[in-house]
Each structure stands twice: as structure tokens, then as C-alpha cells.
Amino acid sequence: MKRVFLFACLAFVLIFFLIAANNEFELLGDTQDYLAMAQSFVQGTALQDPSRPVFFPLIFHPPLYSIFLAGFFTIFGFNYLGAKVVSIFFGLLSVIAFYFLLEKTRSKNKELLLLAFSSSIVFLYQANRILSDTVFMLFSIMAIYFFLDYEKKQKALDFSGILGSIFLGLAFYARVAAGPLAL
Q1: Is the pLDDT of residue 142 over 90?
Q2: Residue 113, H or E segment
Q3: Residue 61 has what DSSP assignment?
């Protein structure tokens, strides 16, 4: 597959983001929770998750996305548009990861699959929200990539298997929905 096609898909996602960046910010539900958790990390206070009981925050909202938001806020200050930039950054990385995953497989229509992924309304919608979906997507794709590599090598212990496990763990710390991938 030609890399020019990858760059065209990335440009499409960026253009969509620039258009969508002007819409209203959704500061309810999970978005509010992730932002509050990120502020907790920045301030060094106890982890806050406004919509959940004090003893359950990590079950409903794993901390990885909030840690990335906190890193961004520490460098650039608290900014809602910046929080969206974090999501679109991971969205772009997931398009690149999907490209490399397609290169590893024997799919016939790789360009069509990459186009379908990068222009999917679900992907574009989630990449422009302050939610952990794009982080989860990136690490899930990376886990699948390395597990496919591990399966091809047919070794009991291999570095690609270790990397696949690390990325699966990171996906779980982005969203608990990654749990079934371990099966």
C-alpha cells in the first residue's frame, strides 16, 4: 500500500478535526469525569471522579487517558481545545497503527480498509470528543499487531508477545472494554 494514501487519510482526519474544533464542548458525563481526574493528577490531590462513588473510580474510568490529559495540561495549561487535541493526536496515531496492521495482514483491499477506518463517522466522532476511545483504539490495534507477529513466530517467549501484552495492558488502563481482548 502506498504511503501517499496513508497521508491522504491523515489529512482528511485533520481537516475534519479543524472543522469540528469549532463546535461546542461537551462537558457532561464521562468528559467531565476525565477532566476532573486529569485535574486531580495535575494538582496532586486524591483522584476525583465526580459521577461515581469514591471507591469505584478506576473501574468506570481507568486513569490512562486522564494521565495523558494531565501531561498536556501540565505543559500547556488547562484548555478544553487542548483536551480535544490529545484525542485527535491519539486518533491520528491509531490511523497510522491501523496502516501498519494492514501491512502485516494479507488483506486484498488495504486502501479501502484504511479509508473506511479513517473516514468512519464513529471514528471521527470519537476522535473529536474528550473521551478515551482513541487511546483505547491505538493500544488495542498495537496489541493486535504484536500478537499477530508473536503468533507467526511460533516461539514460547518472544519480544513481540511481551510488547503485545504491554499494549493490551495499556488498552485496559484506557478502557476496561479491553478485557475481552485478553481471551
Answers
A1: yes
A2: helix 110-118
A3: S
